[in-house]
Write a structure and sequence with these properties.
6% helix; mainly beta; six-stranded mixed beta sheet
Length: 404
């Protein structure tokens, strides 16, 4: 039964080929490139095949192999060996007449056996090559672009995570697909079928295409080390004075502090760019039947493309010594505003690889901030605003020297 279904499907493929040949080329409701067969098939049907739907015959009763028809007009004379093609059930039927039990002007009773669809075809020769569409023009995939015959994915982040591993404050791992592409080239379907007098002599179907997959990946690892020097007090003085407002004395306690501090950053970065990684695949899927044996035509050849790997490393060190001038004015030595000024000098040095180069840049500036100081047992505590740059500038522009 399975073999009959297979053969039936092959013949129907032949009808599909005829349909493509007969399509009006002016049809513009199709998307994508047309499927164009190269050769024209030749199909001849058996003269003894009778299409029941085109004759004045209506199937009334089926009792095993006995088929009873109601005749509504002039019906051709049915002989033993004729083939009846009908579509009265879900799949249709092919019945071969073994006996004409009775035939009148209004009724026809036949004994039949199951027939083969191959018997309906006297000759069928198909040798056709289809040029298949590479990519449908209406294909839509989120985040993917269609460029020509390629599917292209760009800027897809794989991972962007920060890890904390003492003594390093943080290590950031970033990996992304900069570009990935899938290209399908020259997909074709070769189809060949030869049937003569109900005998399948040869059948071959072969799908072939060249597929190219490639991607560009970048991986970046950044490690950061931070260090703050313990403040060194260079100067500190506290003064008290009284201010009279009307007849109320207001006592001010003013503390002036000068501290030397320094902040040190060390950053290391390793970047790896992998471009052109992928493979080319020549794919063939098919089968060949040459009476009486079958052979598989499946094959796949894969050619790996060696990627280009580029690694770059960079180390940066930043040292920023600064002096903090802070003045706190507490009323009655309880709470009051504060203001601070921080002149600083900052040096940035960097080293890059694989083209060794050392660079340095020096800048300076002044930042200011404000705050509020209170007694902790009152629940007020201390609050300090972030520093705001007041003046800044470069005193030694970046200069680089190659390292031999």
């Amino acid at each position: 039964m399975k073999s009959k279904i297979l053969i039936l499907s092959l013949i129907l493929m032949g009808f599909v080929i005829i349909l493509f040949n007969s399509c009006d080329p002016k049809d513009d409701d199709l998307t994508g490139p047309p499927i164009t067969p190269v050769n024209t098939p030749i199909i001849e049907f058996n003269d003894r095949a009778i299409n029941v739907a085109s004759e004045p015959m209506e199937l009334q009763i089926v009792n095993g192999g006995t088929y009873t028809y109601l005749l509504t007009g002039d019906c051709p004379i049915i002989l033993v060996g004729d083939l009846l093609l009908g579509d009265d059930d879900e799949y249709g039927y092919v019945r071969k007449v073994t006996e004409v039990v009775s035939q009148t002007k209004t009724k026809l009773v036949l004994n039949t056996i199951e027939g083969s669809f191959l018997e309906v075809v006297k000759r069928c020769d198909i040798d056709t090559t289809f040029a298949l569409p590479m990519l449908p023009s209406d294909l839509s995939i989120p985040g993917v672009q269609i460029i020509g015959d390629s599917l292209v994915l760009e800027d897809y982040v794989l991972v962007d995570e920060t890890f904390y591993l003492p003594p390093l404050p943080s290590i950031n791992l970033f990996a992304a697909i900069d570009r990935a592409y899938l290209v399908i080239k020259n997909p074709t379907l070769d189809f060949e079928l030869h049937v003569t007098d109900g005998v399948l002599n040869e059948y071959r179907t072969l799908y072939s295409a060249t597929t190219t997959f490639g991607c560009d990946i970048s991986v970046d690892v950044t490690a950061l080390f931070l260090y703050d020097m313990q403040p060194i007090t260079l100067y500190q003085k506290t003064e008290r004075y009284t201010q009279w407002v009307w007849f109320v004395p207001i006592i001010h306690v003013v503390t002036t502090t000068v501290k030397l501090m320094a902040h040190f950053d060390l950053m290391g970065q390793l970047n790896t760019d992998i471009t052109g990684m992928g493979f080319d695949q020549n794919l063939e899927i098919g089968a060949h039947y040459y009476n009486p044996s079958w052979e598989d035509l499946n094959s796949a050849q894969i050619y790996w493309n060696e990627p280009d790997v580029m690694m770059t490393a960079k180390a940066e060190a930043t040292i920023r010594p600064y002096i903090e001038f802070k003045v706190v004015d507490k009323l009655y030595n309880l709470a009051g505003p504060s203001v601070r000024t921080e002149p600083y000098i900052e040096a940035l040095a960097s080293y890059t690889w694989p083209d060794p180069e050392f660079c340095i840049e020096v800048s300076a500036g002044i930042s200011v901030g404000c705050g509020f100081s209170g007694m902790d047992f009152f629940g007020i505590g201390n609050w300090n605003s972030p520093n705001f740059p007041l003046l800044s500038g470069t005193i030694f522009p970046e200069h680089c020297w190659p390292v031999n």
